[in-house]
Write a structure and sequence with these properties.
2 domains; 20 strands; alpha+beta; OB fold (Dihydrolipoamide Acetyltransferase, E2P); elongated; about 35% strand
Length: about 350
Amino acid sequence: MIQVRNLSLRLGEFAVHDASLEVAEGEYFVLLGPTGAGKTVLLECIAGLHRPESGQILVDESSVRDVPPEQRGLGYLPQDYALFPHLDVAQNMAFGLRLRKRPKAEIDKRVHELAEMLGITHLLKRSTLTLSGGERQRVALARAVAIGPKVLLLDEPLSALDEQTRESLCVELRRVHSDLGTTTVHVSHNFEETLAVADRIGIISEGRMRQVGTVEDVFRRPDSEFVARFVRTDNILRGRARRKNGGLAVRVGKLELQAAEGPEGEVFLAVRPEEVGVARGIEKGQANLVTGPIAEIVNRGPLVRVDIDVEAGVMVKALMARRAFLTQGFAKGEVVSAFFDPSSTYVFPAN
C-alpha cells in the first residue's frame, strides 16, 4: 500500500538520507526511534507536508510525490491533534466529509457509527476545549478515519497521555485497526506502545532507516549495535567468533560463549536480559554459564535487573520478576551464576 523509495530531504541542519520502506495493505506499521530521529519528517513526507528532494512515495502503486496532501486519500493525526476549538466534537468529526461535500444523512450516519465505535457518543455536542487528553485523542482519531482513508498516519498519537490512558488507547487503536482494516503508519518512541500495536516496525535514527522487520525480528535479532542498544538488549558483548562443533564459539575476553549461528570474525553477541537466568552455585550441563559478584541491583517496578560482573570489563545483565528475585534473596556483592541458551543469542558483525 505504501512504498518509500530512496527518499532524501534536508530541512535546515537535519536531513533524511536515502530512506526506504514498504507497508503492506492492512498492516499496522510503527516508525520507532529516539527524539530527533526523523520519524515525523518521514511521516510528513508521506502526508504531503514536505516534498522530498529525491526519491519516490507511492500509495496503492501510484506516485504521490507531486499530489497535494488533500488529494492523497490519507487520514492524518498530528501530535497535537489539531482539533478546531470553534467546532464541537461532532462537527470536528464531520469536517473532512463536509469538505468532500458528502450528503448530510451520510455524514450523520458516519459520525454516529464512529462515535459508538470509540465510545464518545456522549461527547458529540461538547466543546473540544473541555475534553481530557484521552477524549481528544479519540475525537482526532475519529476525524482522521471518517473519510475512509486508504492509509492512516498517526504522529505520536499517545505521547501526551498518562500511562494508564496510553495502555487503554493502545487496545483501542488495535481494535479500530482490526475493525476497519486501514493501513496504518504510527510514529512512536515508546517500546511498550510499539509492542502493543505493531505488526512490523522500522527503526530510524539520524534520518536513516536502520532496520525494518517484525517486532520479533527487530527486538530479538538486531542487526547493528545501534539497534541492539536502542531496543534495550542490554547484553551486547564484543568478541571474535569461529566455527566449533557445528555451532559458533565467541571469545569475549577470557570467556568462550556459544551461539547457534552467526558470522565469523569480529562480532557482537547480543542477549536480551530476560533470557539470562541467575542462580546460586553451578548449574551442571548449562551452556554459557559464567560466574561473578552482583555489581548492581536495579529496581524496575514489577521487574528487577541484576548486573553480574563476570570478568573485568564484562557485565552480564539479567531481568527477573520481582517476586522471584525476592524469593531468592540475592544481595549486592554475592557471587552467583548467570547462564543463557545459545539459541537465545544473536551474533552480528562488529562493523
